[in-house]
Amino acid sequence: MVTFVDRVTLHLSAGKGGNGCVSVKREKFKPLAGPDGGNGGHGGDIVLVADPQVTTLLSYHHSPHRSAGNGGFGMGDHRSGALGETLELPVPVGTVVKDVTGETLVDMIEPGMRFVAAPGGIGGLGNATLATPKRKAPGFALLGTPGWQGDVLLELKTVADVALVGYPSAGKSSLIAAISAARPKIADYPFTTLHPNLGVVQAGDVRYTVADVPGLIEGASEGKGLGLEFLRHVERCTALVHVLDCATLEPGRDPISDLEVILAELGAYPVPEGQRPLLERPQIVVLNKIDVPEAKDLAELVRPDLEARGFRVFEISTVSHEGLRPLTFALGQIVAEHRAVEASKPPVERIVIRPQGAEREFTIRVEGGTYGDIYRVLGVKPVRWVQQTDFQNEEAVGYLADRLEKLGVEDELFKAGAQPGSTVVIGEGDGVVFDWQPSLGSVAELMTAPRGTDPRLDMNPRRTTSQRREKYYASMDAKAEARAELEAERIAAKNGQIGTGDEGVE
């Protein structure tokens, strides 16, 4: 049995960007012909696509975890890594995409609309791209950044021109089956319809869609029954059709009281901002089941009261199809008039102005800590640069320091009150923690140290073998010089003593 699902939470994981490559080209008679490390490939995006052929979110209900492909690593000889495979997820037209806080990200009301729900990571640059006239052979490359990971909420709101509303077992499913090719489940017990059914109706030159909304009861707008679960499916409808049961056998019910309850629930339902309230839209009342003699008499009795309240009333029978043709043409006229009004409106043009430098690229937040203030650097660029840095490579760390200094992070740290040795964290959570030491300026491009090292960083304080050998030789030389001086002083003193004795003998 096919299940209708109109709300689901997706757990998305976009592809990770590939790392850049560190490589030096070697040719015959040219052992160091320059860097040739390629760039890493970008990670794959996860894209939502509005597809008219999809009518439910059932597949995502059973498999909510979706991930895209990772980008390939860069290689030598200027070969870039492969791009991660983009994952396209088809969703029904009318799907609203929200974040975890409930804020609407996009309303996919047009077939073919595309929305990048999870952007892939950025591929790292290879050392060939990082080379400059002053830094001719970089000994490092940038790492790929991780893709976006998180949850999004998909909520389906049926896109239909006309909505059939009414009490359970009022005949809404029978009506949509009689006027269209839709074949919903029909039975003689309440709440037979558990999900909205769509049908296409052709009335002359007008073709429109009709949605059969599950039955409403008193208190539906507060969560009783199935009404609140499906009332959102009438938000996009142009007209409402109140289907009233004139042959009900339940005590205390009649078409007038049923209509009062439905109107109260529709009036209590809040529609999104910018949309017309449900009760301000065109409404038609349908008195159903007039093939029953008692129902026919009741319909004729209540019709004057309904028309006095301003409703257009149609008496129909879904069994004998009596009155269906006038109803379908009346609905087609309403839909055609609404489409003409919408077509005459000028399109709303959205102009988004983002002046350069209007938004700060980073912020610094001072947080209190057990051992003093912590200065947290937040921003898209600093966080991305940290993700791209190989902290096992001294030259890469120096390159990161230069980028942060050029961005103005050090100046802002001074303004925030940071002192040499203060704790600085880049990014939310644990982030990257280091003891800040202000630099004197950007000198990474003027380095003459071996590739992969930065003399500004003392990452390995232990002495090397050559340094210990030099110190040993220097110590031995100093000892030899000291012994030579002592020996010279001893010989000089001895010669002086001998000279004094000889003179006494004479």
TrEMBL record:
Localization (cell): Cytoplasm
CDD domains: Obg (cd01898)
Coiled-coil positions: none
Basic and acidic residues bias: start-end ranges: 453-476
Positions annotated to bind Mg(2+): 173, 193
Cofactor: Mg(2+)
Enzyme class: hydrolase
Cleaved signal peptide residues: none
Gene3D superfamilies named in the record: GTP-binding protein OBG, C-terminal domain (3.30.300.350), GTP1/OBG domain (2.70.210.12), P-loop containing nucleotide triphosphate hydrolases (3.40.50.300)
Residue span, OBG-type G domain: 160-336
Domain Obg stretches: 2-159
Keywords from the named record: Cytoplasm, GTP-binding, Hydrolase, Magnesium, Metal-binding, Nucleotide-binding
Residue ranges annotated for the OCT domain, each copy included: 354-438
Region (Disordered): 449-476
EC number per UniProt: 3.6.5.-
Residues that coordinate or bind GTP: 166-173, 191-195, 212-215, 288-291, 317-319
Alphabetized Pfam families for the sequence: DUF1967, GTP1_OBG, MMR_HSR1
Family per record: Belongs to the TRAFAC class OBG-HflX-like GTPase superfamily. OBG GTPase family.
Matches recorded under NCBIfam families: Obg_CgtA, Obg_CgtA_exten, PRK12296.1, PRK12297.1, PRK12299.1
Subunit structure: Monomer.
Biological function: An essential GTPase which binds GTP, GDP and possibly (p)ppGpp with moderate affinity, with high nucleotide exchange rates and a fairly low GTP hydrolysis rate. Plays a role in control of the cell cycle, stress response, ribosome biogenesis and in those bacteria that undergo differentiation, in morphogenesis control.
Protein name: GTPase Obg
Protein's organism: Microbacterium lacus
